[in-house]
Amino acid sequence: MKLLFPLLFLLSTPLMAQLDLPADFQARLDGMDIRFNAPLDSDFRERTLRQDNRWLEDHFAMTSRSEKLELRFHLLPEHEGDTYYQMPHLAATTLAMNLGSNDEDAVTAVHSFGEEELILYGADWARMYTFRPKRSFSDKEQAQLIALYREGRGLAYTILLFDKAPITLEGRQLSLRFR
Questions:
Q1: I want to staple 76 with a disulfide (CB 3.0 to 4.6 A). Which of 52, 142, 155, 179 is the partner?
Q2: Could you give the percent of the chain with pLDDT greater than 70?
Q3: pTM, to two decimals
Q4: DSSP labels for 84-112?
Q5: Residues contacting residue 142 through CB under 8 Å, at least 6 positions apart
Q6: Taking Cα atoms as reference points, which of 153, 163, 164, 166 lies closest to residue 176?
Q7: What would the pLDDT profile of 89-98 be if each residue is shown by its tens digit?
Q8: CA distance 161 to 131
Q9: What is the pLDDT of residues 160-176, one digit of tens each?
Q10: Which of 119, 117, 115, 97 is nearest to 106 (CA)?
């Protein structure tokens, strides 16, 4: 009986999984004052970073079998020597065009966020690009690039890769937010 109560208590309370982030990615998040919202309600696992990716260096990547979704993250602190210093619209658009397919029928859609969404992301500027990725970048049919910018901190990219959009897609778009 003494063991039964603690066992029932443990089974009745939701267990919170914790995702251990690599130290270098956590340092990048802290350095740019970004909050990472880990998808603890799914089966996401850290994915090995690709070393042969010439389009964008992933700082962290994770994948979910049940959602059939891959998330990749890239954080770019702001510094005056950068080619796109204080021009996130040029940096993000250039990246989206480099990651997007060059096929004749490929389409890129751009979504501008409103004031409420900017507040939610803690960003001064934000865009979402939806496109078919280059096969050398991903074998998935669709990609969404969420680009967030905060003056003095830099650009944070979340890339969502999928064949068919999972019902959780909108929530996964909020994986990164400035504090």
A1: 155
A2: 85
A3: 0.85
A4: TTT-HHHHHHHHHHHHB---TT---EEEE
A5: 130, 131, 132, 133, 161, 162, 163, 165
A6: 153
A7: 999 999 999 9
A8: 10
A9: 999 999 999 999 999 99
A10: 97
